[in-house]
Specification:
Layout (H helix, E strand, L loop, with lengths): L5 E5 L6 H12 L2 E4 H14 L7 H10 L2 E4 L2 E4 L2 E2 L7 H11 L2 H15 L4 E5 L2 H5 L5 E6 L2 H14 L6 H17 L12 E4 L5 H13 L1
Helix pairs in contact: 1-9, 2-4, 2-5, 4-8, 7-8
The structure holds cytidine-5'-diphosphate.
Amino acid sequence: MSKIINIAIDGPAGSGKSTIAKIIAKKLNITYLDTGSMYRAFTYYALENNVESDDKENIIKLLENIDLVLDKDEIFVNGKNVTKEIRFENIDKNVSKYAAIKEVRERMVNIQRDISKGKSVIMDGRDIGSVVLPNAEFKFYMDASAEERAKRRYLQNIERGKEVPYDDILEDIRLRDENDKNREVDPLVVCEDATVIDTSDMTIDEVVDFIINKVNG
Ligand code: CDP
């Protein structure tokens, strides 16, 4: 049996984590987990049920009732495929509020650890190196200027067939970074043992090669 490896990729919104992680997972033939999609799916479920992020009692009820299934690139909430919906603007705007809730994080982290048990994985998110996989052999922190990240997200949206004004995206990214870095529970931090990659002036291939080289030693 080949050795199990865990790769943690953290970083702010739009730094390219999921694009890169997906490619690396394919190249190394290991499981990829987009943890952000889980917080997005929970946010979708909460908004659908009109539960505000400060309504602890009902948030806990939602956590009891939610059935979250990840299947390759798709995500299902209680049987409904919400892969497209979780990328909508109302989710971008609200997700960091729901992701700051302790009970929500505990539940998501448990699912993430379960998925990674006994197999090689690459996960991207905000707390992977610090909380979810603290013993990961490889930890990376991907960053880029807010303007570059907003530009990338703008183009990604166009590819997905929707046009969101660049300024709105930039504002959302700044706000989300602020929330994710300053929340009390599991904030986005640069782990001491993480390799920081500033991707502002790097192509996707360059970032992929950099990580693969590190992993292959
Ligand atoms: O793709 P993008 O960079 O826009 O964000 P994402 O990875 O889909 O994550 C959406 C939001 O979920 C983040 O802004 C965080 O608030 C939250 N999140 C988190 O708290 N912890 C994670 N491990 C992943 C995402």
